[in-house]
Amino acid sequence: VLGTRHDIPRLVQEEGIDEVVIAMPTAPGSAIREVRAICERAKVAAKTIPGLYELINGSVTVRQIREVRIEDLLRREPVHTDLAAVERYIAGAVVLVTGAGGSIGSELCRQIAARKPGQLLLLGHGETSIYNILSELTRLAPKVPLVPLIADVRDEDRIARLLLRYKPQVIFHAAAHKHVPLMESNPEEALTTNVLGTQYLLQAAERAGTSRFVLISSDKAVNPVNIMGASKYLAEVLVQHAARRTGRPFVVVRFGNVLGSRGSVVPLFERQIAEGGPVTVTHPEMTRYFMTIPEAVQLVMQAAVLGQGGEVFVLDMGEPIRILDLAYDLISLSGLTPGKDIEVVFTDIRPGEKLHEELFGAGEERLNTAHEKIFLTRGSPTLSEEELAEGIARALQAARREDMAALYRTLRELIPSFCPAEELLERSTTKGDVASERQSISALECRPSIHTG
Length: 453
Hints:
α10 runs parallel beside α11 and α12 crosses α14. The protein folds into two domains: 69 residues, Rossmann fold (3-Layer(aba) Sandwich), CATH 3.40.50; 295 residues, Rossmann fold (3-Layer(aba) Sandwich). By secondary structure, it is an alpha/beta fold.
């Protein structure tokens, strides 16, 4: 040992070092960031070995040296998981993953396959994504019986028949529309997929005798200001009603953004950098919660162990990250200088977006669980099952007519904290204080006003 990280500049000069390898797979992102900054000042290349989550899922080995990525800079302390408890409900069981070809769904499949299920059902609407995860798992877990199912969760009859045929004991429901601006202009799609799809799956799960159901939810469901968030809120309530009705451990797991998921901000920034810029950021103060996909999935599987029925589990996302800082980091990781080699431009907040997301809603109490990285909140649905079903039907009718005023009215009746982001913006424009209103976008501010449509 020749010294500490602070000795790197001196050692580079004295020893003629060309490259520094950061060999700390369990180190938090702050340590990786510090070492890389020291290397930058010393004008020496820095690479790293894979992080702990990459090593756990078996996709890489510790010998594979690679460039430092954004995931390394945001890495947190390793999560301690009770693998034995997870394996007890997975091993030998028939497990269904919806949205199995997506970013979260495919990682769920990888981690479930490692726990030796009796059968793993890969359900998805897109044949290419299902083919890709099927091919990968056939290679990585050749002894696990895999069943690819090309199906749409909105097809009530097919979902019912598939569940009665395969009788999954455990369901992870990851199929969903997630893009906020796209769902603002396509509300029918958001409601039919995120709400009706969840309802049909829950009904089929009850009839098939499914013993454990986990809905993957979003921080957008908290005090929702957009259609996507409202649809995920309603999906959460449907799961709570099903848990109460059946007495089974049907639960919700809620978390924020995951790094590198398809269509997310990191791949967008990387493409913009590769094209020479500019990198587009909606607002200089916008923040989001982030975690890596393997970490999120590991906690989702752990939360399923903790569930008794009806809980909304919330993953510890750490501190929110400013999107502008994320853009600067990605530009720097590409060996370029922000503002000099790559321009950063601000494009304004998109339809339905909040400046800052929240993890707990109005009236939700943050409670600890047996796991330090998983919290929970227990809420009682304010509407009966009949009132909820009738309201969802009216919301769908309004969406199909493209009557946004009627849709917003109905969503307000269903969701006490719902308020469209655009209405908050209009109100702030009247006040003449757009910036401060945007910073405090919260559906609570909507309650005093009456939307007449």
